[in-house]
Amino acid sequence: MSTFIRYIIIAILAxxxxxxxxxxxxxxxxxxxxxxxxxxxxxAICGFYLHRRFTYQITDxxxxxxxxxxxxxxxxxxxxASSLTLFLILFAVHNPIYAKxxxxxxxxxxxxxxxxxxxxSVRNGSKGLAKKNVVP
Length: 136
Prior knowledge:
Number of domains: 1
Structural class: mainly alpha
Largest sheet: none
Radius of gyration: 16 Å
């Protein structure tokens, strides 16, 4: 099974957490932006562990902190980008659920590329399927 297929499977699971939590929080009268931030944090934690083990099949625990720093660094950039995109889309799409879905779709492919290229890259001798950082 290709890395991209495994990535999509985990992304769908993380998105169920993300969108399900968002829907629940919005129904509980949270603002869409605050709800988005909360669920992005929860989904990022789940996504890190699932991507590391299943998507990229990295079993070397010695590098967990290096991967965590890169992954959560990306999440720290992604969450405000996602929230800003959601905020802007809400001007045109007034339903917060539809606006969030559109925002998330727009950022999905960019995140896949960054995650594969930089976050779960492995050094020589490390176990896993992710490609080494190589300049094309």
